[in-house]
Amino acid sequence: MARTDPSIERLLERILEAAPADDALLDAASGVDARQAEALRTLSDIARAFRDFDTAPRAPALFTWGPLAVQERIADGAASEVFRAFDPGLGLPVALKLLRAGDGAPPARMFLDEARCLARVRHRNVVRVFGAAVHDGRAGLWCEWIEGRSLAAWIVADGPLGAEETIVVGRALCRALGAVHAAGLLHGDVKPDNVLRERGGRIVLADLGAGGEPAHVNALLRSTATPAFLAPEVLAGALRTPAHDLYALGGLLQFLLDGRVPGPDRSDPPARHDVPAALRAVIARARDADPARRFADAAAMEQALADALPGHAQAPAAPRAGRRGLAIAASVAVLALVVAGSIALRPASGPPQAEVELLLQHDAAIAPAADGTQVALGDRLAFSVTSREPVWLYAFNADDAGVLTRLFPLPGLDTTNPLQAGRHEIPGRARGRNLRFEVSSSAAAEEFLLVAATAPLARLDAFDAADGRVDADVRTRSVGRAVPATTGPTDARLDALAAELAADRRVRTWRYRLPHRD
Question: Which residues form the Protein kinase domain (predicted)?
Answer without folding.
Answer: 68-306
